[in-house]
Amino acid sequence: MSDASLNSTTQTQPHEAQFGDYFALLKPRVMTLVVFTAFVGLYAAPVATNPIIGFVAILFIAVGGGASGALNMWWDSDIDRIMKRTQKRPIPSGKVTEDEAFAIGIALSGFAVVMLSLATNLLAGALLAFTIFFYVVIYSMWLKRWTPQNIVIGGAAGAFPPMIGWAAATGGISVESVLMFTLIFMWTPPHFWALALFMKGDYHEAGIPMLTVTHGRRATRVHIIVYTILLAILAVGTAFTGVGGPLYLTVAVVLNALFVKGSVDIWRRDEAMAEADGYAVEKKFFKLSLLYLFAHFGAIAFEAALAPFGLGGW
Fold this sequence. Notes:
By secondary structure, the chain is mainly α. The protein is 75% helix and 0% strand. The N and C termini lie far apart (74 Å).
């Protein structure tokens, strides 16, 4: 091989997509939450599910969630190039083209919806299709760039997985599955607003009307404490439903006490205090919010696991 050919190969190699780049399009970290909450919804349902059917259902729900991520990256590629947090994603980094991301997202969406419908039931497939539509069209294409309530309404997209899992097992929707949906729906705003407090520059430069940009950080702090208190009431109340029990109640009381305290700490701070310590309190609250959701759904799963032994629930 000539020196010129070698140099050309060296220059183009960094831009050639690898399997990991295509996988990154599916937002694997977000997919983890989708898979876990969908599994809990399916496992906590009062209907025994064949393990193979259950595995297949979770697999296709995960594929559908990944398809949503790919389509989101396709649509948001322009602002991903601006925001520091997203500049290393496959499209802005030049490893995957927009057309490739769109094709992958559409293909996986259709595949996941059809296969979930065939493997379980039409309701589960329809809910997955609506979730993909909601995340890509309602949230990404419309709400995200139009209103500071983007993350409030758009949070519904991430809240559907446990409902889909429940529907895959039962073929229906119940109070319990709606409560699991609402738990994620109410958790999403304080989770993302805490992130926005220490990432405001990114949203401002990208022209995203996050609450911190349109109403300021003081208003965002007030919104966080209000939503956190409402979330705490909902989360603790869920302990006394069909998916709750003593173990879940213990987890909910402890974590919501910590979560409310964290929101109060955020509310008491001004920007001078936050900047002085590098938004340490806000970052701590954000990290706690990740544990918060996994712990609540983990407790629901444990209650379901104990039920056959007469130990779960009330």
